[in-house]
């Protein structure tokens, strides 16, 4: 009977149905959804058609019974798994499904037993359609792909279209994530598993099916979120094997949790929206109150009273409504009352208070003489952006202790820098700003500061006054736009752990903003006005000039070499009250020279030692600067912190060593001027010599003279040159920008602007050098050379040539096969590299899409290393003093802004969620500890008052415990008071 039938189509059982039977003709329905087709099947007799109908119904009934049994068994095993943890893959094995990939069933957070008792959706699988690889070009040159997911004949999900690519990547925006949530009966009723149909979108006509992927039930149940690549089965076989492409679909799936349900529900509720959680991470500037018809000053001279901005002290409004200039300064220097905690780190805390600004330019020049700069400060640290209140109509703003000016940043990496930008606030609804908004979408920038925190010690209160610059060129010229006053302090939970973390590469930090105006302010605060992405001859010239500027370091290296060779003093100290200078570096070089000259085994150890020696010498050279604000941290102080894990502090007075610094700066400038004059003289003499010899050179090079007049047009020539050279200069500008950035990082490390990284390089070099001293290098090198000579230069190489290299006896087919294997090996290597790059691209695009959905579509990259061209050294008006534990005060946290660090793979977990879970765990731990103490206490408590309750009593210890428990279990949104430091 079988030889009379040929297979033309193949359908799953749930996609087959009988529409009607008339006579010996059976009208059947095949497929599902838009691909449903109706076909007539003719049998030899009517009884055969009826017999086929009964057989099909019987098979479908058996399938339904099997699905019910599998569902019941699955529900039983889920109950057992909830009561006692099962081994990986036990459910799929126990219900009779064969596994194709070794995976483990990941238990959800939500209580599965409760779901089963409720009779709800007991099968919950989170699925991520990651990407498709190497799709066929259905259109002219590309494809517009989307995926339809079906379980049986029911469509459960559909992605959006990714246009004009054969390698699409689906993200949250294009609906890559979905939650398969249904009953176990419905899940097992589909015999063919979950079907992913890849289609090509056409504006006109029917959408073409590219292919499909079917994932069996067992793989869905055993998935744990790994990236799995499936081959796409084409809908139509290729006409030629040469045009055949191996298309693939990348999926990830795992068992869903309660957090996944909440996230998907929120994602569906906020479909098409962006930055739905931006208020968790961004603190925008609070605009000032309306200043219409308000008097700002009363009186004149030093006794003039000024209106306190942004508002008077709520605790004493009458006393703080009007103050003199001195009273404003004294009030601003007091302790802050409300702090905003921000960030996601756990290494330590950075306390920053914005006190005020001086000498700001007037950014609101108009007919109203009272209209002046409305200043606020934007602070960017790691993955958070916060802003102070706006102080209106003043060029010397002072932020009061009761306003938003104090921030506590949680540190995640010790090499992170603090960026501050000062802006003039422009209201989006002000009539005078309507025209400005059509030209610029940023608050008017006044200046910025990048603070390298590696220069500052922990447990020290710094009162800083730092100049602000609009751009890097102004910083080089010394043209500032005022100053900013800060109060700064750092504390480490474990100083040794902070130094260890500094040796690890810092993770990339990106800050997302929902509104472009906030992104523009954060972007200027971090990067300034320089736009490396756009072509600019000025930027190209600046990069070249910066690289040429390193030529000024030549005389310093020459002096260092002379000091080393001539045994000049390099280390100074006092002995019996007299200064003594010891040529320590010359002594070190002499000792190593003797060791290497007498025993060459020490040469590799010397090379490694020279790295740390150079770093240590650079640290000593940089610390010759008498200014405490310009010298880097000492190498030995970091060793002290690492070994003893003790905190160090420093005391710096106002104008400390200012005269010595001015003298040091004057000598340095004289030295630079002398070097520049010498270089100019060399250049002039070289030009004179070249002009003197140019006539002879030209005459020798040509026998003809061109006397034709040349056409000169400066404007057109400049434009033509610009148009012609832009394709060449723009890539050169991008490469120069990379070189300049890398050079700045290297220079900052060598000059100990990154003290922890420089300390690690120095210490590692010394330790490696000490270990390499004991290695017999001459013995190892001698025997390596001997073995190499005997192996590669001996007569047995002729045997190797005849046996392995000569191809005289190979047939053309064998040579072709050998070449094919080599090409295949290269192809596999290229494929592996491409797959790794593809995975990184998928993660980057999905992370960007998630950040866009969670926090906003505007991203700013926050660098860790000191790559800024603007100096951050405070002025000599700054001071520092050690922090004493006795100065501890209560700091009130009035707001919390979380970092934008996302944990998790398929569905991210925000910092806010982690904080809530941590508080719940802490509350549970406190409650259990309290119950344990209550269980240990006797219940027959005797007191004078028989009606006094056991909990909350005045004479028993239980009252104190109950009160502390109540305080610990208060809501997380309340105002938190923590024992602070100052």
UniProtKB/TrEMBL annotation:
Residues 105-230 form the C2 domain. The chain crosses the membrane at residues 589-616, 757-777, 783-800. InterPro entries: C2_dom, C2_domain_sf. The keyword Chloroplast does not apply. Pfam families: C2. The keyword Lipid biosynthesis does not apply. One of its GO terms (molecular function) is calcium ion binding. Keywords: Calcium, Membrane, Metal-binding, Transmembrane, Transmembrane helix. Residues 935-982 are annotated as: Disordered. GO terms for cellular component: membrane. This is C2 domain-containing protein. It comes from Amphora coffeiformis.
């Amino acid at each position: 009977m079988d030889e009379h039938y040929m297979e033309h189509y193949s359908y799953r059982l749930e996609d087959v149905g009988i529409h009607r039977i008339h006579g010996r003709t059976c009208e059947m329905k095949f497929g599902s959804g838009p691909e449903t087709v109706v076909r007539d099947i003719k049998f030899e007799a009517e009884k055969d058609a009826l017999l086929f109908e009964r057989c099909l119904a019987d098979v479908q009934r058996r399938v339904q019974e099997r699905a019910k049994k599998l569902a019941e068994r699955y529900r039983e095993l889920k109950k057992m798994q909830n009561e006692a943890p099962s081994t990986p893959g036990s459910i799929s094995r126990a219900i009779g499904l064969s596994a194709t990939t070794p995976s483990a069933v990941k238990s959800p957070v939500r209580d599965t037993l409760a779901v089963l008792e409720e009779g709800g959706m007991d099968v919950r699988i989170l699925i991520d359609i990651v990407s498709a690889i190497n799709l066929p070009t259905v259109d002219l040159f590309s494809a517009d792909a989307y995926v339809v997911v079906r379980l049986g004949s029911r469509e459960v999900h559909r992605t959006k279209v990714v246009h004009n690519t054969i390698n699409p990547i689906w993200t949250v925006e294009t609906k890559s994530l979905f939650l398969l949530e249904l009953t176990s009966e419905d899940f097992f009723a589909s015999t063919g598993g979950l079907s992913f149909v890849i289609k090509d979108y056409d504006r006109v006509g029917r959408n073409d099916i590219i292919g499909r992927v079917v994932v069996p039930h067992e793989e869905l149940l055993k998935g744990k979120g790994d990236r799995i690549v499936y081959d796409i089965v084409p809908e139509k076989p290729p006409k030629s094997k040469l045009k055949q492409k191996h298309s693939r679909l990348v999926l990830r799936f795992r068992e869903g949790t309660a957090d996944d349900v909440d996230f998907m529900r929120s994602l569906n509720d906020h479909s098409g929206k962006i930055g739905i959680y931006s208020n968790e991470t961004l603190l925008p500037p609070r605009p000032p109150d309306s200043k219409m018809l308000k008097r700002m000053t009363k009186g004149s001279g030093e006794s003039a009273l000024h209106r306190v901005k942004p508002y008077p002290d709520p605790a004493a409004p009458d006393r703080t409504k009007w103050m003199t200039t001195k009273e404003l300064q004294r009030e601003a220097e007091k302790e802050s009352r409300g702090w905003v905690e921000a960030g996601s780190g756990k290494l330590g805390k950075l306390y920053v208070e914005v006190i005020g600004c001086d000498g700001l330019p007037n950014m609101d020049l108009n007919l109203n003489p009272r209209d002046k700069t409305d200043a606020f400060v934007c602070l960017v640290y790691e993955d958070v952006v916060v802003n102070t209140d706006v102080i209106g109509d003043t060029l010397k703003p002072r932020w009061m202790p009761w306003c938003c000016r104090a921030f506590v940043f949680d540190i995640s990496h010790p090499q992170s820098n603090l960026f501050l930008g000062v802006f003039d606030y422009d209201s989006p609804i002000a009539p005078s700003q309507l025209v400005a908004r059509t030209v610029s979408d940023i608050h008017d920038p006044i200046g910025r500061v990048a603070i390298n925190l590696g220069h500052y010690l922990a447990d020290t209160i710094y009162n800083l006054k730092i100049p602000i610059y609009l751009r890097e060129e102004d910083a080089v010229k010394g043209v500032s736009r005022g100053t900013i006053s800060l109060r700064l302090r750092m504390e480490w939970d474990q100083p040794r752990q902070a130094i260890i973390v500094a040796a690890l590469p810092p993770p990339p930090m990106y800050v997302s903003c929902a509104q472009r105006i906030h992104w523009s302010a954060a972007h200027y605060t971090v990067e300034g006005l320089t736009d490396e992405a756009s072509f600019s001859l000025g930027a190209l010239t600046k990069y070249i000039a910066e690289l040429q500027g390193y030529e000024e370091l030549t005389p310093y290296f020459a002096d260092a070499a002379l000091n080393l060779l001539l045994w000049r003093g390099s280390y100074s100290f006092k002995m019996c009250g007299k200064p003594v200078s010891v040529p320590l570096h010359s002594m070190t070089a002499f000792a190593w020279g003797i060791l290497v000259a007498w025993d060459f085994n020490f040469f590799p150890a010397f090379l490694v030692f020279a790295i740390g020696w150079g770093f240590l010498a650079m640290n000593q050279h940089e610390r010759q600067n008498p200014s405490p604000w310009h010298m880097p941290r000492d190498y030995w102080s970091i060793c002290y912190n690492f070994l003893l894990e003790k905190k160090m502090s420093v005391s710096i007075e106002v104008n400390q060593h200012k005269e010595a610094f001015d003298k040091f700066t004057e000598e340095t400038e004289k030295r630079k001027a002398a070097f520049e004059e010498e270089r100019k003289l060399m250049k002039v003499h070289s030009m004179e010599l070249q002009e003197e010899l140019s006539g002879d050179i030209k005459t020798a090079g040509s026998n003809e003279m061109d006397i034709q007049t040349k056409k000169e047009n400066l404007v057109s020539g400049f434009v033509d040159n610009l148009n012609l050279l832009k394709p060449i200069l723009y890539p050169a500008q991008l490469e120069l920008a990379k070189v300049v950035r890398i050079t700045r990082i290297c220079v900052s490390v060598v000059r100990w602007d990154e003290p922890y990284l420089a300390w690690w390089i120095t210490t590692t070099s010394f330790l490696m050098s000490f270990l390499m001293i004991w290695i017999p290098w001459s013995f190892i090198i001698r025997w390596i050379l001997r073995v190499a000579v005997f192996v590669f230069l001996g007569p047995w190489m002729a045997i190797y040539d005849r046996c392995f290299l000569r191809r005289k006896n190979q047939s053309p087919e064998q040579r072709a096969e050998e070449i094919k294997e080599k090409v295949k090996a290269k192809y596999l290597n290229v494929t592996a590299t491409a797959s790794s790059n593809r995975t990184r691209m998928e993660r980057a695009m999905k992370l960007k899409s998630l950040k866009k959905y969670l926090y906003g579509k505007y991203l700013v990259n926050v660098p860790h290393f000191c790559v800024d061209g603007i100096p951050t050294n405070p002025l000599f008006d700054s001071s520092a003093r050690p922090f004493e534990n006795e100065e501890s005060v209560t700091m009130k946290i009035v707001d919390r802004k979380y970092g934008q660090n996302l944990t998790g793979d398929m569905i991210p977990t925000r910092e806010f969620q982690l904080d809530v879970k941590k508080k719940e765990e802490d509350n549970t731990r406190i409650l259990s500890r309290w119950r344990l103490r209550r269980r240990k206490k006797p219940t027959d408590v005797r007191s004078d008052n028989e009606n006094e309750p056991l909990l909350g009593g005045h004479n028993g210890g239980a009252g104190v415990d109950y009160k502390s428990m109540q305080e610990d279990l208060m809501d997380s949104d309340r105002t938190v008071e923590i024992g602070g430091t100052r």
